[in-house]
Specification:
- It is a single chain.
- This protein starts with 6 loop residues before the first helix and ends with a strand.
- The chain contains two helices and 20 strands.
- The chain has a single domain, classed as Jelly Rolls, CATH 2.60.120.200.
- A hairpin with a 5-residue loop joins strand 11 and strand 12.
- It is globular and about 50 Å long.
Length: 309
């Protein structure tokens, strides 16, 4: 996943284009039992998606004032959907913890669309509608956010030639002051790589732009079951987890433990992080020719989102 374009790069390219058996995971995921990031921490927030609570989730383009908030090959739908398709649903799911799950879908519309400020309305390869939920709004309102904690979502990803699901976080100040931002990509997945994902820390903008990242090889197919993806954020660092085990940074061979160089600024400005759950479509791979009928509609599911302090 590491050689791929960043989300910020894909924003530019898009505009230009107008669920675990870990027995075999010793070399990939630290196996010490006391590495569980929830031990000694209190569960302070959880959404089990028995319903979709619109008082804390906002649907549509990424909350930002730097651009339209769209990226990739799909238009993120507002609440209620776009072009006759609603990508947000709560569904029965017997393997979810409480029998319900959030379903985020992506559908190929295949005709000229009329989505406000979307660069791909008239481009055949970009005529998709998909889902993006976030706990923030474009006017800078943070519906829910936290400075520190362990953040976790249990999810299953689609098997698809274009899909790009993600669970990520942004700092609140980045909405109205976007020249700098902190982006924590807990998981980004490509639908054609069922046992690999990427995790990233980006401190965008100058001075002091800084990024860390690693690919994560999993001993399981992430498109065939629910798995837990998490990140521990404390005062000055972040640590990504898979199935509550710290992932190994391939550059060092040790558990990823990344320094937040802007932690002082976060504290001085009383800034916080807010989460996003996104089903996007990538632009850096060829569009399927032909697009198979079974690939015109795809979905990811989220069992829960939890925060521990």
């Amino acid at each position: 996943m590491l050689p791929s374009l960043s989300r910020r790069s894909l924003l530019k390219h898009g505009a230009a284009f107008i669920g675990c058996d870990l027995a075999c995971a010793g070399k990939l995921i630290a196996a010490e039992k006391d590495d569980d990031p929830t031990l000694g921490r209190e569960l302070v927030f959880e959404d089990n998606f028995e319903t979709l609570d619109w008082s804390i989730w906002n649907a549509g383009p990424k909350a930002t004032t730097s651009d339209t908030g769209f990226y990739g090959r799909s238009a993120f739908a507002k609440k209620g959907g776009e072009e006759g398709f609603d990508p947000y649903a709560i569904v029965d799911d017997p393997v979810a913890e409480r029998g319900k799950a959030l379903k985020l879908s992506a559908k190929y519309i295949g005709r000229t669309m009329n989505v406000r400020k979307y660069y791909g309305n008239t481009l055949a390869e970009f005529q998709w509608i998909s889902g993006n939920l976030q706990m923030a709004m474009k006017d800078g309102t943070i519906l829910k956010g936290w400075r520190n904690g362990y953040f976790e979502a249990r999810m299953i990803f689609p098997r698809h030639p274009l899909s790009w699901p993600a669970f990520w976080m942004l700092n609140g100040k980045s909405i109205l002051a976007p020249k700098t931002s902190i982006e924590l990509d807990i998981v980004e997945h490509k639908g054609w790589e069922p046992t690999v994902y990427g995790t990233y820390m980006h401190e965008w903008g100058q001075p002091g732009e800084n990024s860390r990242s690693t690919g994560v090889d999993t001993p399981v197919d992430m498109t065939k079951g629910y798995y837990r993806y998490g990140m521990l954020i404390d005062d000055s660092r972040c640590v990504p987890f898979f199935e509550r085990k710290p992932v190994i940074d391939k550059k060092t061979g040790r558990p990823a433990d990344w320094r937040l160089t802007r932690s002082g600024q976060l504290n001085d400005e009383h800034d916080i992080f807010w989460p996003l759950l996104t089903l996007a479509l990538r632009t850096d791979v060829p569009f399927p020719q032909p697009l198979k009928d079974e690939d015109r509609l795809t979905e990811m599911r989220v069992d829960y989102f939890k925060v521990f302090l």
